[in-house]
Amino acid sequence: METQQINTLKQQLSTTYNRYKCLYENSPDMLLSVNPENTKIAECNETFIKKMGYTKAEIIGKSIFFIYHPKCIKNVETAYKTFLDTGKVDNTELILKTKKGSKIHVLLKVNSIKDKNNKIVYSNSCFRDITELKKLQTRHLAYQRFAGIISDKFSNALNTINIAVNQLNKAPFLSFDEKAQYYVSSIEQASKNINYIVNKLNKKA
């Protein structure tokens, strides 16, 4: 092969490598590779570094368990065992711990790279940041609890009002003038309106 052809091939390989390197480093997700024999981190992308607050020198060579929040270590151990047994992990919710100590809620997906003897050489891990989603879920649960409390309070009050209105309407010894009847009717209508709102709250919750 002529020198010019070799140089052209090298240039093409370099261009392809740089393209995929750029995709890897700037992926929206945090990417990580681990040696399964010693649990040590072999590689990670820039997205992981930026979100976690470490340098690559501080991460490469550390145990994979180093990056997780203590709150989820048992789940991490379970996920790691699953990986060793099956060669993959599918969409497991875990919590990373940044250098500053804050939490990043993630969805972990792992696949394995194997040699010709079907032995796992290393893992490719993808961490998707779902922290904002978890915050939304927390707010939604808080809304559900609030709506439930309000619904119960209103329902109890409505029952009392409805019983009182029914008794007033049925009482033969009470004689209401037109103005009093209007007030009783207004209370009854207000009760129906509140009941409608309570039902709406329950459906949204």
CATH topology of the largest domain: Beta-Lactamase
How far the N terminus sits from the C terminus, by CA atoms, comes to 71 Å
Total number of helical segments? 6
Summarize the main sheet.
5 strands, antiparallel
Number of structural domains: 2
Based on the structure given, which CATH architecture of the largest domain is correct? Answer: 2-Layer Sandwich
Keywords: Kinase, Phosphoprotein, Transferase
Protein name: histidine kinase
GO molecular function: protein histidine kinase activity
Catalytic activity: ATP + protein L-histidine = ADP + protein N-phospho-L-histidine
Description:
The chain has 205 residues and is α+β, with helices and mostly antiparallel strands. The protein folds into two domains: 3-129, Beta-Lactamase; 135-204, Helix Hairpins (Orthogonal Bundle). Helices cover 56% and strands 21% of the residues. The chain contains six helices and five strands, in the order H-E-E-H-H-H-E-E-E-H-H. It has helices spanning 3-25, 46-52, 56-59, 73-86, 131-170, 178-204, and strands at residues 30-35, 40-44, 88-97, 103-114, 120-129. A hairpin with a 4-residue loop joins strand 1 (30-35) and strand 2 (40-44). The longest helix is centred in the C-terminal third of the chain and has 40 residues, at 131-170. The termini are far apart. InterPro entries: PAC, PAS, PAS-assoc_C, PAS-like_dom_sf, Sensor_kinase/Photoreceptor.
In a nutshell, what does this entry contain?
With 205 residues, the protein is α+β, with helices and mostly antiparallel strands. It has helices spanning 3-25, 46-52, 56-59, 73-86, 131-170, 178-204, and strands spanning 30-35, 40-44, 88-97, 103-114, 120-129.
